[in-house]
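Internal tracking record. Fields below are filled automatically when a chain is submitted to the structure queue. Please do not edit lines marked as system-generated. If the sequence contains nonstandard residues, flag them in the REMARKS field before resubmitting.
Queue: standard
Priority: normal
Entity type: single polypeptide chain
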Amino acid sequence: MVTVKDETMPIRTSEDVVRVRQAARELAMAQGLSLVDQTKIVTAASELARNTLDHGGGGTVRIEALNSEARRGLRLTFEDHGPGIQDINLALTDGYTTGAGLGLGLSGAKRLSNEFEIFSRVGEGTRVMIARWR
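SYSTEM-GENERATED OUTPUT FOLLOWS
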């Protein structure tokens, strides 16, 4: 696997959430993802960026364009140093929320991605990686 582009962006404000969405869309287009796949990765990126800001107190996203002989894709890794998630399985349950949302952010991002990994430690923060391939 060859990384053809690798960029880390801050997520500190709502404007940063918009910038993450724009960067994800531009890179998904450059990687040749279909419109449906672009929409899926941008929607997942938006949800996770919002979670990073609202629940993690801000953080970063690493956006990578990946190429191999067999496929091309996009990987995004969101990281914060917030309170962490006490029960990841519960947090991934549709409808579960600790805020005013619908409780579809994490579970929705997982469904919209070809790959999904989450690691969280209470008191230390959370890291979520998603990838979409064409």
